[in-house]
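In response to reviewer comment 3 from the previous cycle, which asked for concrete evidence that the modeling workflow produces usable outputs, we include below a single protein chain processed end to end. The sequence was submitted unchanged, and the resulting structure tokens are shown without manual editing.
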Amino acid sequence: MNSFLEKPIEYETVAVKIFSAVEYSSWCNERAIFSDANLKHENIVQFLTAEERGGTAAAPQRQYWLIMAYYNMGNLQDFLTGHILTWIELCSLAGSVARGLAHLHSDTTPCGTPKVPIVHRDLKGSNIVLKNHSECALCDFGLALRLDLSLTVDDFANSGQVGTARYMAPEVLESRVNLEDLESFKQIDIYSMALVLWEMVSRCDVIGEVKSYEPPFSSKVCEQPCIDSMRDLVLRDRGRPDIPASWTAHPGMQLVCATITECWDHDPEARLTAHCVVERFNTLICYVSELGSQTNRKA
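The workflow returned the following structure tokens.
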């Protein structure tokens, strides 16, 4: 009788995002976003599959699953809460956030294949996961919108005032987004990214005294601010998080803070594009590498 060696079954840990029946439309939207093969990118969370569960006698409660790659370092907000960034970590992580957003917004893949631009519309630290100490991936596309040229102004108008109030751009808070210009939707993401970059800088060891993690505007609004509170602060008072002079004493940090300021400009059209932010951080990473080479030569 022949004998066979059985190969052990290998299991892979995955992340499962579970939607209830009332969240079905959000599940459908996120599944549709992930169904675009051209979305795949190293700084976008890796999507594996979508499944419908339940609805049987044994499990009557209907559930909708999105199954994605699992990253054991958690999300960026939690990471910043418990970890102070080095200058190199800041440049690498922030650059990866910008690259992920630039890929979303782009109408081509890195190899030139046409793709439909996508806007996230709820960019914040809890919707960004850590792959490692130098790379992030954007996640949670439940509110994302495909900027399909076949859609009309009315289609975009019906998409609603969405996002997390704390991270909403002035024009969203005011309900005055230019629906006839698709770039307007990208500019909203850029404002939100600026607040995320500010959070990262606030937890970097080169700014001087590093305080405990706080979300943007934490000293001026409550933990879960409403749209009206944010409208008063951001629109009426033109409020933005503070950038102390001590933050810009470090070589290179001036460029980071200038980038943040340009990205949260009150005028949407004055904001940088995600691709421009990528170029800024590429410049900084080259600068860091050059400094390291000079240090090694001196040693």
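The longest helix spans residues 274-298. We consider this sufficient to address the reviewer's concern, and the full set will be provided in the supplementary archive.
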